[in-house]
Design a protein that fits this description.
The complex is a heterodimer of chains A (about 350) and B (about 150).
Chain A (H helix, E strand, L loop, with lengths): L3 H6 L4 H12 L3 E8 L7 E9 L2 E9 L11 H11 L9 E5 L10 E5 L15 H22 L3 H4 L14 H16 L5 H11 L10 E3 L9 E3 L2 E4 L7 E3 L2 H5 L10 H12 L5 H29 L5 H19 L6 H8 L12
Chain B lengths: L1 H7 L10 H39 L6 H14 L8 H24 L3 H30 L5
Classes of the chains: A alpha+beta (about 350), B mainly alpha (about 150).
């Protein structure tokens, strides 16, 4: 029987999962282990090892938490991304089913996909020395290849525009992204935040229009999100922020992964893989924009969940209040500068991409 | 403060699940404690900055709708009572912030270069104070959390 604690936290017991999977698969299965992933900030994920018909079989179960997802897009949106990508060369785990309103897990929206052998972390990634250097190079190269495959995808042919609104043109891609997220921010911010308002007013005057073509944009990506095996990316994973727009946003949202190799070499690899140059202005805009987008998510969605929907995680307050305000203070220092100078300010003390010239 | 502790303490047993949760809990607890002691001072700075911005920008604003909103907000806030409660001060800051957003958006949309320059200078003065205050308050509050 589900306890109050489990109901509030969305925790699932192994026997519940076993009963659910047995019913769905139409045969008794044995769950050997069911482990919830950390941090699982946007949604909850269980990695499940089972025996089905005498053979080992792994599943990943992804659900909206009881308080709802900490991102603006629905789980159905994410499911459709998996379903669509599964038919393309982009590496993803096989999606199995999506449902909502079932008895299991209080009817929360859920999806199940096959478990891909590998891990979202890479052992020895920070090791100092030649072996670590070589490992980082393999990881970044593999990640860039996967991003380039995603960004080069014929998204119309694949059917992405059946469920994601595309920007009107490539030149409008960043403007479209800007308008979409500014509207979400206005709707969900916890305070009026005049500093963010000015940041957006200033940034709006600098939106680049040299996006060469519209791509599927993964959203947050990199180590911690994708599945790696033998230091190669074997499956892209967690598409909670996937949209259609300028792929350069993914370079800025790799959560440090692409900086493992150094910005200049990483950018060269990406440009070679894509066959087009990334202008410094586009990249600078993306770096600044992703900082805002993170604020919109942690304040407008994570903190919102805590304030309005019963999300009990103190992480939401730490991120939605502390980290958001630290980032806002940083963005305020960028206002009025050129995009390139603003990005340098943002990355002061770090290996920023726009220090490429020098 | 009590509310924050009620939120944090039940979560601590789950900290064994990951040290990240424990870290988050401790950071927010430290922040909450600091906010109790320093919140009013920070809100006062915010209040003064926003009031100055609205008062000084009023005559440069072309939109009657925004002028009225400024007048209403300043009238509502009135003279700051010496013993104002934190919650009331927070409400006043929120009201002033909403109107400041209109002023900022309007200022950036102005085509007249000279008026726009003057308004952006006023906004920049507010921004510099507010950003510095926010930065100082947070770095003093909880060290440098690594989220």
């Amino acid at each position: 029987m589900t306890s109050d604690f489990d109901r509030v936290t969305g925790h699932l017991r192994q026997d519940e999962i076993q009963a659910y999977l047995s019913e769905k698969l139409g045969e008794p299965i044995e769950v050997l282990s069911a482990k919830q992933t950390y941090p699982g900030f946007s949604r909850q994920t269980w990695l499940i090892q089972t025996i089905v018909g005498g053979s080992a079989c792994g599943f990943a179960l992804r659900l909206d938490p009881p308080w709802g997802a900490s991102v603006p897009y629905s789980l159905e949106h994410e499911w459709r991304v998996y379903e669509t990508l599964w038919k393309t060369p982009v590496p993803v785990a096989e999606p199995l089913w999506y449902e909502v309103g079932q008895t299991f897990a209080d009817g929360r929206a859920l999806m199940v996909r096959r478990l891909v052998e590998g891990s979202s972390t890479v052992a020895g990634l920070n090791e100092v020395g030649p072996a670590g250097d070589a490992r980082r190079r393999r990881v970044v190269q593999s990640h860039i290849e996967a991003l380039a495959t995603l960004h080069s995808l014929d998204w119309r042919g694949a059917g992405f525009d059946d469920f994601i609104s595309p920007p009107p043109s490539a030149a409008d891609a960043l403007r479209f992204e800007f308008d979409t997220w500014r509207a979400l921010w206005r709707d969900r911010r916890s305070e009026a935040f005049p500093l963010v308002t000015e940041f957006l007013c200033w940034l709006e005057e600098c939106i680049p229009s040299d996006t060469p073509f519209v791509s599927v944009v993964k959203g947050n990506n990199g180590v911690g999100e994708e599945i790696f095996k033998d230091e190669r990316l074997v499956a892209m994973s967690d598409f909670e922020l996937t949209s259609l727009g300028d792929g350069v946003l993914d370079l800025a949202f790799s959560q440090g992964t692409l900086e493992l190799l150094g910005p200049k070499e990483t950018l060269q690899l990406y440009e070679q893989a894509m066959g087009v140059r990334v202008s410094p202005e586009r990249l600078a805009f993306a770096n600044l924009w992703i900082r805002f987008k993170a604020i919109a998510n942690i304040n407008g969605y994570a903190l919102w969940g805590m304030q309005h929907n019963g999300d009990f995680r103190t992480t939401c307050a730490a991120l939605g209040i502390v980290s958001a305000k630290m980032s806002i203070a940083m963005l305020a220092g960028c206002i009025g500068k050129s995009l390139i100078d603003a990005d340098r300010i943002l990355h002061r003390g770090h290996s920023g991409y726009t220090d490429l010239d020098g | 403060m009590d509310t924050i502790e009620k939120l944090v303490l039940p979560e601590l047993p789950r900290a064994s699940w990951s040290s990240g949760y424990l870290h988050s809990a401790l950071v927010i607890l430290a922040l909450a404690k600091d906010q109790v002691s320093g919140a009013k001072e920070r809100l006062l700075v915010e209040y003064e900055g926003l009031s100055d911005l609205l008062r000084e920008s009023r005559d440069l604003i072309a939109s009657n709708e925004i002028k009225i909103a400024i007048d209403d907000a300043l009238h509502q806030s009135g003279r700051l009572p010496p013993m104002i409660a934190d919650a009331k001060l927070q409400d006043l800051c929120e009201d002033l912030s909403v109107v400041a957003n209109h002023v900022i958006e309007h200022s950036y949309s102005i085509r007249d270069g000279e008026t726009k320059r003057k308004l952006l200078a006023l906004i920049a003065a507010y921004r510099a104070t507010a950003a510095a205050q926010m930065s100082n308050a947070l770095s003093n509050a909880a060290g440098r959390p690594i989220f």
